[in-house]
Amino acid sequence: MKEISARNFEHEVLEGGKIVLDFYSSECPPCEALAPKFEALSDLFGNDIKFLKIFRQENRTLAEKFGVSSSPTVLFFEDGKEVGFRLSGGIKRAELFEGLKILVGKDTINEVKSSIEPTTTHCDVAILGGGPGGLTAGLYLCQAKIDAIIIDIGLPGGHVSTTHQISNYPGFIDPQPGYLLSHNMSEQTKRCGTTYKVAVDVTHVDLESKEILIDEYETIKAKKIIIATGTSPNLLNVPGEAELKGNGISYCATCDAKYFIDREVVVIGGGNSAIEEADFISKFARKITIVHQFDKLQANKQAQEKAFANPKINFIFEHEPRSFKKHESKLITEIEELKSGKRKEIISDGVFIFIGMKPNLEVLSEGLELDNWGYIKADEDMRTNIKDVFAIGDVTSKKYRQITTAIADGTIAAIAITRELDK
Known about the structure:
- It is built from 12 helices and 22 strands.
- By secondary structure, the chain is α/β, with parallel strands linked by helices.
- It folds into 3 domains: 2-114, Glutaredoxin, CATH 3.40.30.10; 119-232 and 357-421, FAD/NAD(P)-binding domain (3-Layer(bba) Sandwich); 241-353, FAD/NAD(P)-binding domain (3-Layer(bba) Sandwich).
- The strands form 5 sheets. Strands 6, 7, 8, 9, 10, 11 and 22 form a 7-stranded mixed sheet that branches.
- α4 (93-104) packs across α5 and α10 (272-281) runs parallel beside α11 (301-308).
- The chain is globular.
């Protein structure tokens, strides 16, 4: 794997060969999550494909030339021309394999996969998810001398790592950068001795047998499992959204706001995330237009007051997006007035979408008891209806979802498990 810049881009990329190029940024958790996968695949395919990385912030002009507006973004080249599809955001190992298949073919992919020897790792507790709840559970279990493994498809920290400031976490007089708070939580748990399996693909989970398959070749066998998988951003599911994700549409202000210096952006949503992140985006953008479906914001009063007082932020109420399309470098957001049905277009340089979250349960086997909104039901000790399976944090059925409530859940589950294993 090799780091390049705009100066040697033509020589390294455009003069032929099979190339995989990663545009990455600093202070970008998805970029950090991709790095070990990218390096591992470079070791596997290094004889057939050249793996290259380029620092997007120091090569902004080149990134803009290729329409790269999200970090990380992975491009595939063959004989100097971009081929296949682009990958961006939280990139999975399986998605990278699909991209590589275009360069070397299905047979080579299967041959490489077959050469990877399956392994099995045993532990007392497997924690699915490395957000505040999972990290806290790992810390308590480690201090109780219980062998725990934290498994996460990204890096530890969860949504905290992509929140620009945390102002209500106890113990800090001044607001804390989210990435720093999550880093400190992670380091504390890691130094205690908890094992980390992060930036991996969780390809199968069997809650009954307590087996978790990661990256298609390593099986984690545990006595107990803690589900701490959290939530993911809701999608609008309107035309153009999927196609422009990572190419003008973003769901992470911390990752991408820095690329909209002195530009105009649209923010979709009116809850805490939308309003607080719009304030953060205003540190970079020249103008922000917030589009919200209701006639008033749902964010907390403090966030509302700050947004209304911000001269860079404008509001369009009682409208919803109906489509997105791109014309040259501009993004066109078509919105509809809900009362009249009239539609109009907003032209901007980018769109950020913050319209709530959904529980991450896609890889879990059936059998969990859920509430009407799809969240896991758990008792006062965070036990689910499946024996030796616990659930904590935002993925559970609860009234409030905060860092502090996730930490409390992790504490409770860890103590309950410790008492059971000590018997």
